[in-house]
Amino acid sequence: MGYIKTQGVVIKEVNAGEADKIITILSKEYGKMSIMAKGARRLRSRFTACTQFLCYSSFLLFKGRDIHTINSCEVIESFSEAGYDLIRLTYAAHIADLIYDTVQEGQPAGRTLKLFLNTLYYLIKTDRPPELITRIFELRYLCILGYAPYVKGCINCSNEGLEDLSFSFKKCGFVCSNENCFSTDPYAFKVSSGTVRAMRHIVHSSMDKLFNFELAPMVLKELGCVIDRFLKERLEKDYSKLKFLKNI
After folding, report:
1. Mean pLDDT, residues 74-102 taken together
2. Is 58 exposed, middle or buried (0-12, 13-18, 19+ CB in 10 A)?
3. What gap in Å lies between CA 217 and CA 226, rounded to an integer?
4. Residue 235, number of CB atoms within 10 A of its CB
5. Mind listing the domains of the chain with CATH numbers?
6. d(Cα 180, Cα 100) in Å, to the nearest integer?
7. Predicted confidence band at 169 (pLDDT cuts at 50, 70, 90)?
8. What pLDDT sits at residue 1?
């Protein structure tokens, strides 16, 4: 029993009872946390703003036996603008799903929280292409989870050129067109030099430079194909929210 303080972003909310809801937040110190927000669905509740989806808030929590309960909270940064843009909201919900499925309760998640907050800023508060921002998040997040692909060059011969490379999902990295290298995975996905540059940047750049690039539509499409399959195979799950966007 007792109280704990933390800061976190709401990644899921579920209605409970007549006016309560249970939210899940991503916090630096405690990873994924389930929290009871009593009365948060009432119009004049002091918890309403802090418990909205994607809101980043400071919480004082009563530590119960089975679930934490909000004692007080204060908004740090709201990303509620997402609700007015269906496309950006869909991308944000997809990202939140990835985090919800992979972050453990009670395990520190500082790197994930920092990446998530930076991603939400560029996704919600700028006019940058939402697909590009999401692809950057996906690949960088896989690196945080321990699934970083080898992108410095050919995984077999260490050739660091940009041309004639393919991405091997079998070997989790680039292979060059050299017969001895490509034969290790003849089904590797051929990629352009633009995709090679983008993947190297996403995997190895510092956080302050991570989102500082643009891609031509065809390169972004190719990058998306690679990351989408790589994500699916590493996490062993087919995330379907983004498929909705194809019908818009």
Report:
1. 92
2. middle
3. 14
4. 17
5. 3-80 (2.40.50.140), 128-148+190-247 (no CATH)
6. 41
7. very high
8. 58
Confidence band, pLDDT 50/70/90 cuts, at residue 244: confident
For residues 178 and 157, what is the distance between their CA atoms, to the nearest angstrom? Answer: 9
Residue whose token pair is 């119009």: 43
Predicted local distance difference test score (pLDDT) of residue 248? 65
β-strand pairing of 150-154 with 173-176: parallel
pLDDT at position 146 is 97
From 156, 232, 225, 218, select the one nearest 165 (Cα to Cα).
156
Tokens 């041309």, residue located: 163
Contacts 24+ apart (CB under 8 A), 153-156: 154/178, 154/181, 156/180, 156/181, 156/184
CA 158 to chain centre: 30
* Token couple for 194: 């633009």
Name the residue with tokens 């990835």.
98
Which tokens belong to 102?
A: 């992979």
Q: Which residue has the tokens 């995709």?
A: 195
Helix segments in the chain, DSSP class H: 86-102, 110-124, 130-144, 179-182, 193-204, 217-235
Q: Which of 8-12, 15-19, 56-60 has the lowest mean pLDDT?
A: 15-19
Per-residue pLDDT for 102 more than 90?
Answer: yes
33, 24 contact by CB (below 8 A): yes
Report which secondary-structure segment, H or E, holds 6: strand 3-16
Q: Which CA distances in Å does 58 have to 71, 116, 202, 241?
A: 11, 16, 30, 29
